[in-house]
Design brief:
heterodimer, A: 156 residues, mainly alpha, rod-shaped, disordered N terminus, B: 119 residues
Chain lengths: 156, 119
């Protein structure tokens, strides 16, 4: 590892610390609510009485983990992307400050390359935010599903 | 960061050879002062800056891969993958620029030496 001491030089702990985990307490609360809802749904769910109902439940049950996996992948990808954009912004700003203070022509060219790399990627990332819209669509679709159509027999 | 003026490890600097020069100098004519053109200085700065950039990228790739090996958080892994993609892409494209700058710098050096020898 060469001794590079630029502002953009990776400080992994700092990068990791910036995007905090999304409010663990709130997540815990959400999980509790989720479990409570499931329990309530199970209590309210009438016993299946026809073959069609059983088949539908099996199909829904098979689809749910897939949806959950996709949702998890999408949210992981978005959080990684946002963390990356955060890094790019801070690195580019720090590099520009360093560039203004630097007198050595070679080092200035080096920093200029860094700034160009970070800004080019930031521009690219900011143009590809479609997955955030996808996530919002998926989440809104989940909460707007009519009651009883999720196969759990949950009522509003 | 290593100073660009530092010589190679264990090697004598060029200024140390100045003392030896009279022993090998068989002419009494004064030498024409050697002037490094602004162009050559610019080319050399380009070479140093771009080489420094490639070294930085290689270092960061190494460190990112090491981080990724031990990473358990999936979001941070996704972040590291994006970083690695960026560095690799830059490394792949920028090394060509360095080759061109080196060629330009060397051409300028040959021209300068030739002019000095003729003059």
């Amino acid at each position: 590892m060469s001794n590079l001491t630029l502002g953009s030089h990776f400080c992994w702990e700092r990068v990791r610390a910036v995007p905090p985990d999304l409010l663990p307490a709130r997540r815990e609360l959400r999980d509790q609510l989720h479990h409570r809802t499931d329990a309530d749904a199970r209590l309210k769910c009438p016993a299946p009485w026809s073959g069609d109902t059983i088949r539908m439940s099996q199909i829904t049950a098979a689809a749910e983990p897939t949806d959950r996996t996709q949702l998890s992948r999408l949210s992981t990808s978005i959080r990684g992307k946002l963390q990356f954009m955060d890094y790019l912004v801070r690195a580019a700003v720090a590099d520009v400050e360093r560039f203004q203070d630097e007198n050595d022509p070679g080092t200035r060219i080096f920093i200029k390359q860094l700034v160009e790399m970070h800004t080019a990627n930031l521009r690219l990332e900011s143009q590809n935010l479609g997955m955030i819209s996808d996530l919002c669509n998926v989440l809104e679709a989940i909460v707007s599903t009519p009651a009883g159509s999720n196969g759990s027999g949950e009522t509003a | 960061m290593t100073s660009p003026n530092n010589g190679m490890l264990g090697e004598p600097s060029l200024s140390e050879f100045e003392d030896l020069a009279p022993e090998f100098d068989d002419s009494s004519e004064p030498t024409r002062p050697f002037v490094t053109s602004r162009e050559l200085r610019r080319y050399l700065a380009e070479v140093k800056g771009q080489a420094q950039f490639l070294l930085y990228l290689a270092d960061q790739i190494e460190e990112s891969l090491e981080q990724l090996t031990h990473e358990t958080d999936r979001c941070h892994s996704a972040f590291l993958c994006k970083v690695l993609g960026m560095y690799s892409s830059q490394l792949e494209t920028k090394h060509q620029g360095l080759g061109e700058r080196i060629a330009e710098a060397c051409q300028e050096i040959y021209v300068t030496i030739r002019e000095h020898e003729i003059g």
